[in-house]
Amino acid sequence: MSALRHVKPAVRALRPYTLAARPAAVKINQNENPYDLPAELKQRVLDAARTRPWSRYPDFDPRELLEALARFSGWRADGILAGNGSNELIEALLMVTVGAGTSVVIPDPTFSLYALLTGVLGGDVVRVPLGPGFAFDADALRSAQRGSAASVVIVCSPNNPTGTALAPDEIARLCRDTDALIVVDEAYHEFSGQSVVPLLPAHPNLVVLRTFSKAMAMAGLRVGYLLASPELVAEVNKARLPYNLNFFSQAAALAVLDDPRVVQDAVARLVRARDALFTELAAMPGVHPCRSRANFILFALEGRLPAEVFAALYAEGVLVRDVSATPRLHDCLRVSVGTEEENALFLDALRRALARP
Ligand code: PMP
Questions:
Q1: Which residue's CA is the nearest one to ligand 1's atom 4?
Q2: 294 CA to middle of ligand 1, Å?
Q3: Nearest-angstrom CA–CA distance, 96 and 159
Q4: Cβ of residue 29 lying under 6 Å from some atom of ligand 1
Q5: C-alpha pair distances (Å), 91 with each of 97, 237, 239, 340
Q6: d(CA 130, CA 108)
Q7: Helix boundaries (H) for 160-302
Q8: Ligand 1 pocket, 83 CB below 6 A?
Q9: 53 CA to centre of ligand 1 in angstroms
Q10: What is the pLDDT of residues 204-218, one digit of tens each?
């Protein structure tokens, strides 16, 4: 179709980010928190939403939320941007930094959106393979940045889909050794017990992304935030759409920040369940799980096609993520940590799938 010739060739060549909607009794494919927010908290947010006029825009700057995020994270409110999910803020950040001729360094494999958005914006992606056991190779990231004079290095830590993390002192070293922006996606940081937010005062080239979609149990409401120096935040803010965060999601985020214990207990439980799940997977013949700092586990299958095992699990109502189309992960599946009951159902279904001739 001739209308398509107006689309940038680099965009035509990209594959979209998609996920087929599949109903499942045990849904452990999107790294969500299986423990929903308490009914009383939901009721409070609903009551507040009912009395507020829906015909009026939300505040231009969600001041109250930014201040609550500042108290929660330990970073200054004028160095925080709130977004409609952290994906929106990754996009805003790349919009103000990437154009034709800009390079962005990313580890490989990692969350696919970074490369997709860099491609849409006309930039070049420089991929740096993760090392043995999918460990980060900070030296290789550093030399790739130098070699390509990249403007941005994106480190997802813990990394999706491997669950591996880069230590904060390595990230501090990266920040010191280059003037590129070092972007740390901390979507899963709660499950790792580490964060680079304390490094922000000393490193004006550090950007941290966080989300309410995982540990904070609010994936359906789309809230994320970006933390960086106020000067940098003011620039990224230029690419943020006006009124990007609806008042309902703001109110829900404020309610969780008002009493974070409602999610902290679930996080502790999920971390214990993750470690138990790892032990079970590691004990299965032909299954090789990757040690994870997040709320999911990547595992390789020996002598089995992941697509077949995925289908056998799904036939039993267990939905995991088939990541085998990703380069280097041709023998892998990824499973999110569910409730103890869901994890047991998954393990039973996996044992049966692997016992088939
Ligand atoms: N970063 C990473 C590493 C993720 O895995 C995801 C979700 N899959 C996101 C960001 C998206 O977060 P949000 O829902 O806040 O847009």
A1: 187
A2: 12
A3: 24
A4: no
A5: 10, 11, 9, 35
A6: 6
A7: 168-177, 230-236, 247-258, 261-282
A8: no
A9: 31
A10: 999 999 999 999 999
